[in-house]
Amino acid sequence: MKEKLMYFPITAYSIIMGLSGLSIVFGKFYHMQWLPKILYDSLLLFTFGLFLFISLIYGLKVIYHFDEVKKDFLHRIRINFFSAISISFLLLSIAFMTYWPFLSMGLWWIGVISHTFIMLHTIKFWIQHNFEIKFLNPAWFIPVVGSMLIPVAGVEYMPNAFSFVYFAIGLFFWIVMFTLFLNRAIFHHQLPQKFIPTLFILIAPPAIGFISYMRITQSWDSFAVLMLFIAYFFVVLLIFLHKSFYKIEFFISWWAFTFPLTAITIASVVAYQITQFEIYKYLSFVMFSLALITIGFVSFKTIGKLKAGEICIEED
Questions:
Q1: How far is CA 241 from CA 17, 196, 217, in A?
Q2: Of all helices (H) and strands (E), which one includes residue 240?
Q3: pTM of the shown model
Q4: pLDDT for residue 316 is more than 60
Q5: In whole angstroms, how far apart are CA 182 and each of 29, 204, 245, 258?
Q6: How far apart are CA 132 and CA 135, in angstroms?
Q7: Which one is the CATH code of 2-307: 3.30.530.20, 3.40.50.300, 1.10.443.10, 1.50.10.150?
């Protein structure tokens, strides 16, 4: 048991990201009267309970195996997943925004403070260490581009200027990081099998950027449409890359499939709410179906790995 606790992965928080995203989708579908409220309530409370459980387990790891946590925090790849903790707070704050506003505000403030620290620390870590291009993968987007999530609930709790700061930071680093990643993907070695699912993270920045921009500006303009259509482009691109996902071994990083699919689903619902164009309604259903199937499949695989005792093991 102690060994399992020692190797409890920080990537477990990516499960919360996926389920929180799906909870928000259920909430949007309920408010559109497309799904019953019980689904939203049940998944939201289950996700929050799982978040508390994972946080408890990781808290015990911090207490009893602090050296392992420190090793992860200084790891060239795993450091990028620590921001999944703060992003889980932010996503849960969005999910609870209409359900329990007081809890939502508390989760949001914890998410903002922790994400700001982790983001700045991670950028400092990148600058102060020498990296080979092979270490770069879409998981690097999480610490910096994740700041675009802050305005989604933030416009309710702080002036728009506060939210716009984080939107601007996320937008800037999305452009920079995507340029670096495209260079790595085309001109250097292929991604390791373990990180191939993280390609789905490419969908998230433009989808979240679109949602955040709409929350801040309340303006359906050319820039908003640009962000939305870029997100759809990456969905189509990943469909064309589907053969890359065949026969890859399951890792917790497969949960990277899930949150971006829920993000583009939410973006589609928002687009339909604003424009009332039927195409966005149909796209919402298509993306929702993909997200639901993917989360169901990844959940099944995760449970199988847990039963086989193959989750909390030492990683390379």
A1: 24, 10, 34
A2: helix 222-240
A3: 0.94
A4: no
A5: 35, 16, 18, 22
A6: 6
A7: 1.50.10.150
